[in-house]
Specification:
Elements lengths: L7 H14 L8 E2 L2 H8 L3 H13 L3 E4 L3 E4 L14 H7 L4 E12 L2 H7 L6 E11 L2 E10 L17 H8 L4 E9 L3 H6 L8 E10 L2 E11 L28
Antiparallel strand pairs: 1-3, 2-3, 4-5, 5-6, 6-9, 7-8, 8-9
Helix pairs in contact: 1-3, 2-3
Length: about 250
């Protein structure tokens, strides 16, 4: 690992996060110990210790005293909805997924996105708006904001072929997610893009996701009320689960 402008502990963190992102290290896999990292990279033991401590505090790994350090399970779920890529949800139903990109560009952020991503008013974010379809029928309009320094190449992606959720998950594993679900009447543009009937309400999910210990993405996901539902199955911790796992049709 070459010496660069970044501190060595940060370089080491990014090296481990990269191995997790590519799938080289899977959830519950053992992460190299401090001694192994010292031998492999030439960093000091103090540097290796700091890198592992910060990865632990940020949720990437779990340190078990006397046993070792292991990749954490990054799946975020609740009894209301589970964070999934919408294309994967549709595939699980044996249906055909397709998408249309409405626009994608750097854009001045609105107050809600600014507050959600903790940036200054007037700053710019990567933004993209996409209509997701199931068997040709629109079921979600995604309005997504992303921090440019987290995913510099975000707007270079072909979102007809890969969803923003899938791409962002490839940049870095999801650490944490926050969801708010509400009903709302759509404006004219949303109603037209989702092919909604007059007077039909939307189900709106706002989603904020974290990586590297900070919020990096904020999305508003609009769904036609007549074509979408959220479902879940909850069991208290330690209880054997007999029912189906939650499915919701929404992603990162």
């Amino acid at each position: 690992m070459s010496v660069g402008a970044k501190p060595r502990y940060r370089q080491l963190k990014e090296l481990i996060i990269g191995r997790i992102s590519t799938g080289e290290l899977q959830p519950r896999d053992r992460v190299p110990s401090e001694n192994e990292l010292v031998d492999a990279t030439g960093v000091s033991r103090m540097t290796a210790n700091r890198a592992l401590r910060e990865l632990d505090s940020e949720g990437y790994v779990e340190r078990v005293a006397g046993v070792g350090t292991f990749v954490a399970d990054f799946k975020a779920a609740s009894h209301v909805l589970e964070v999934r890529n919408i294309a994967d949800e549709i595939a699980l139903r044996d249906h055909e997924y397709s998408a249309t990109v409405l626009d994608g560009a750097g854009a001045p952020i609105d107050p809600e996105a600014s507050a959600a991503l903790k940036v200054k008013p007037g700053d710019s974010l990567h933004r993209v708006r996409i209509v997701h379809r199931e068997n040709g029928i629109p079921i979600q309009l995604e309005d997504r904001y992303v921090l440019p320094d987290f995913a510099p190449d975000f707007l270079k992606q072909d979102f007809d072929e890969i969803t923003p959720s899938a791409y962002l998950s490839s940049v870095s594993p999801l650490q944490e997610a926050e969801h708010v679900v509400r009903a709302a009447m759509p404006d004219t543009q949303i109603k037209r893009n989702l092919e909604m009937a007059d007077g039909e309400p939307c189900l709106v999910v706002t989603r904020r996701t974290w990586a590297h210990g900070r919020p990096v993405s904020f999305a508003r996901l609009y769904h036609p009320g007549s074509r979408f539902e959220l479902s879940g199955h909850y069991a208290p911790p330690g209880t054997k689960v007999f029912g189906k796992r939650p499915t919701s049709g929404v992603g990162m």
